[in-house]
Amino acid sequence: MKKSHRFGAIALAAAATLTLASCGFGGGSSGGDASGKTTLNLLVPSYSDNTQGLWEDVISGFEKANPDIAVELEVQSWDNLESVIATKIQGGEAPDIYNGGPFAGFAADDLLYPAKDVVSSDTYSDFQDAFLANAEVDGTAYALPLIASARALFVNNALLEQAGVAAPPTNWDELLDAATKVSALGGGVAGYGMPLGSEEAQAEAAVWLWGGGGSFGDASEITVDDPANLPGAEQIKKMIDAGATQADPGSTNRSPLMDIFVQGKIGMQVGLPPTVGQIAENNPELDYSIVPIPTKDGSAFTLGVMDQLMAFKNDDSKKDAITKFFDYYYSADVYVPWVQTEGFLPVTKSGAEALSGEEALKPFLDVLPDAQFYPSTNPKWSATDGAFKSLFGQIQTKPAQDVLTEIQAQADAG
Amino acid sequence: MSSTTDTSSNPAGAASGRPRPGGAGRAGNAPGGAARGKPGGRDLVKALPWIAPALALILGVVLFPAGVMFFNSTRDISQSGVDKGSVGFDNYVEVFSFPYFWPIFLRTIVWVVVVVVFTVLISLGIAQILNKAFPGRRIVRLVVIIPWAASVVMTTMVVYYGLEPYFGVINKFLVDVGLIDTPEGYGWTRNPMTAFIWSIVIAIFVSLPFTTYTILAGLATVPSDTIEAAKMDGASPARTYFTVVLPQLRGALSVAVLINIINVFNSLPILKVMTGSIPGYDADTIMTMIFKYIQNQHKVDVASALSVVAFLIVIVIVAVYVKVVKPTREV
């Protein structure tokens, strides 16, 4: 009696503990079905509420043109995407096509087809060279550029005017001055929206560290703990100490803070092309402008982010089907509406031409030539990215150097 | 004593006084069990069809994943999830050499102790009130279940958004009554200490219904004649409660505490929502740390090692608790 109770309690404890770490067995079937069709599994993140519908349209168009190929779509949130893909790979159920960010780790584990092998040469040569170069590991591109985005500073004209700032800032000194003046307006208004919380700390970090002449490293080495990154980190602290930012920047996430900007309570914040649509939808009266991101010396710079499509080597018989799918997807008729609806920038030459007249995208297309990218081809980038997300916000309270050292250590260990 | 309490306690009182086959009470149980256990093999074979489903469930749902978890904790699993061979106990070394491990460990203990103690104390009070007859008692009893019926993540999200600066209702209220003088409110969930304290409050809130009902069930088994006897002997209400009622709640209380300890120790969603955006490791417990290993660092191997450690900690706590409190010993 007593014994069985004790065992019961331990079993209960065990069951409860295990639910967290052992969720490593995903279901899902793959491979061809009885009718001889080839089935491609497609795993994509959700960029917006439109994402699922857009992919469904692509797939139904593709299946109509290729009746012998079926495509199964799985949409995940960005939060879960990377754990889902890791779980699937661990369980031997890697998708055939995957839309994600960091991919160098997959390439290092020899899981991916080289990009050249899964698209026709016409499609391959249509990619803009800078993007393709950013998808290379040791000279071979392992992923296909999918979309690009660039960042720019969104400025609330009304608040700046109210604070007596004549023109949007172009360098750090002007930015600090303008943000301090706007913050001084009171009433809960913040001068500069600085989201260093876990959601996308690496982006805001890059805006400052790179804007001060630093870098996160390259394909072979991660250099976060580098003297070149210190000016940017110190400037972040200066902004915080001067009260030029919103409260608790170290743990503020980007999306909720952008909502506050849209509501008109923040003077300036770095945003993305989709932010334009967000403002149009939620607060069309907002009087704002989009200007290049201020840097230390005022030189032009933006943080470019590129997401990729990659093809996993599951079964060589699927290679032709994957190639057909990619060639179909990147044809201008399919690709351009896709990118346009999602509000991102195109990565193909034909796509850029088709969208060159687009008013809302113009400020971003203008800064794109000066874009710098994350060192995402470095196998340690994924660990670096995680380290920034979980540690960089500490810069609010800790010395800048300590934070950089800690991030470097965690990145090296990953 | 009201008639409601009387009728409800009658059947329970009868049940607790039921005759036991094979000799009475605690002493008779163990020898009886040993005697029954002797024939061994044949009985076991006979019993197998009956216990097989339960055994299969325990093997499949408890032991197998535990085995896989332990196995994973000794492997080197790459970030993309490829198994690269055995590394012995290196992952455990990494867990224990992590500079924040001991603070996180201590915070986990504080988290469990504070939540469980307050939950039980508050539940004792609520159960006492609900045990008295008053108009609308049934509705109040239903209301108490609500935190239990609602999803924990949902409850936490409600509080989380309430605490948001700029638009959270709790912040707005505190600003309006003048307790906070920054117009956008205070970043309760942006600072490790306040976020952790609010998490404790939510954890207590969602643990109350189960604990209250367990204690309420215990109160229903307290025979009314013992209380009447105490009253006739002139015991004060306080004395009646502490020397007559409380000892009889021992069984219910010890089960409630045990299950709460396990539950609270393993609770992830509240802390994940409330402290998720805070950088560093100043508001983490072991569970959120496991989550961070998986989510941010993609170290399934190290996360497994920490899970095994957490598993052992729970077993030790439960074993000590069972040894000391003997929850199954009858009064």
From TrEMBL, chain A:
Residues spanning the signal sequence: 1-21
Question: What's the domain of life for this entry?
Answer: Bacteria
Sorted alphabetically, which Gene3D superfamilies does this protein's record hold? Periplasmic binding protein-like II (3.40.190.10)
One matching Pfam family: SBP_bac_1
> What residue ranges carry the coiled-coil annotation?
none
* Keywords annotated in UniProt: Signal
Q: Which SUPFAM superfamilies match?
A: Periplasmic binding protein-like II (SSF53850)
Q: What is this protein called?
A: Solute-binding protein
**Origin species:** Agromyces mediolanus
Q: What is the lineage of its organism?
A: Bacteria, Bacillati, Actinomycetota, Actinomycetes, Micrococcales
TrEMBL record, chain B:
Q: Where is the composition biased (Polar residues)?
A: 1-10
State its location(s).
Cell membrane
What SUPFAM superfamilies does this protein's entry cite? MetI-like
Q: Which UniProt keywords apply?
A: Cell membrane, Membrane, Transmembrane, Transmembrane helix, Transport
Keyword Mitochondrion on this protein? no
Transmembrane domains' residue ranges: 47-71, 104-127, 139-163, 195-220, 241-265, 302-322
Q: How does it sit in the membrane?
A: Multi-pass membrane protein
Q: Does the keyword Transcription regulation apply?
A: no
What are the record's GO terms for cellular component?
Answer: plasma membrane
Q: Which family does it belong to?
A: Belongs to the binding-protein-dependent transport system permease family.
Name under which the protein is recorded: ABC transmembrane type-1 domain-containing protein
This protein's species is Agromyces mediolanus (Corynebacterium mediolanum)
Q: What is the lineage of its organism?
A: Bacteria, Bacillati, Actinomycetota, Actinomycetes, Micrococcales
